[in-house]
Design brief:
By secondary structure, this protein is an alpha/beta fold. It folds into two domains: about 1-115 and about 300-359, P-loop containing nucleotide triphosphate hydrolases (Rossmann fold, 3-Layer(aba) Sandwich), CATH 3.40.50; about 125-300, Glutathione S-transferase Yfyf (Class Pi), Chain A, domain 2. The protein is about 45% helix and about 25% strand. It has a six-stranded antiparallel sheet with strand order 2-1-4-5-6-7, with helices on one face. The protein has a five-stranded parallel sheet with strand order 8-12-13-3-14, with helices on both faces. The longest helix has about 40 residues, at about 175-215. The protein is globular, with a radius of gyration of 22 Å.
Amino acid sequence: MHLEKLTLINYKNFKNFETEFDSEINCVIGANGTGKSTVLDAVYHLCFTKGYFNHLSTQNISHGEDFFVVEGGFNKNEKDITVHISFKKNHKKVVKQNGKVYTKISEHIGQLPLVIISPMDIDLIVEGSDTRRKFLDGMIAQNDRMYLEHLLQYNAALNQRNALLKYFSANNTFQQDTLEVYNRQLIEFGEQLHKKRMEFVTDFETQFIQQYEHLSQSNEVVSLGYKSDLIENDFEVLLRDSLAKDRMAQYTTKGIHKDDLQFNLSGHPIKRFGSQGQQKTFLIALKLAQYKLLNQRNNIKPILLLDDIFDKLDHRRVTHLVQLVKEKTFGQVFISDTDLKRTKEVVEQTNQSFKIIEF
């Protein structure tokens, strides 16, 4: 699978932009602020219906305009696929595939698998559980559409239950029967999501450890754990026992919406005990494991985006990534960088076809 053509209208700093891509390697070169990462973000947008660097549609519109359009032409399994995404202020986002509008935008997720490696990935380590949970959900949803549907239904029930708890507090009232409606929905969808997360993390950790060992070339012991209220507790019992706390807090304090991934190095949290180099290796290993599992489960090589990695990674890690490209581990690759000479020297080592796009 590869992206053949990209068109942008009023997307961030591009009023009108169009280009074609090489099926193997594409290098987007320019100084900071010229739009090189915007091109990669647009590719991500086409696959996930939202940007990687900024999820808010209104903030992806060019200054002074009131809409944007992102359109891409893909080739997947020898079939042409055109994805058209448009958004106008105060309107809903519209996503089309081959001219047909999606009734549910979520139906598009997973059809065009993609993995990105970016300096922003450090958020997976330094930010809260919500960031890691979204990463986990995103990985599973790319090859399990039912998982995404159940996640949306769980979140809808959670929002309604939280609103009801606030209503109870504001009006000094309580209705157990009404609350029970949302409890049943949380339990139904939450238990299914929990089971799939457990299964996925088991497979993912195996791939992750292999990738880390290849990258680090050391005897460091890394692990990836799944933390959830449901591992040792029944969800129905959890909701019942936490009701008093929920009413006081005015939100649901227990459930899979509190799940987290634990990143450990030699048995300790890498956030606190890992060096900067170890953290970078950990993050790249996470993304390479994600790529490998997506490839295996979809039987197709995802698009790989490498954002600004030559500036942020040391020579050893860059060499490892280049070697993987050389071995044709990946499908189509997009690289953004500030240094034309450096990028050309790197991609010429791969003996693959490539295109340079300069800003």
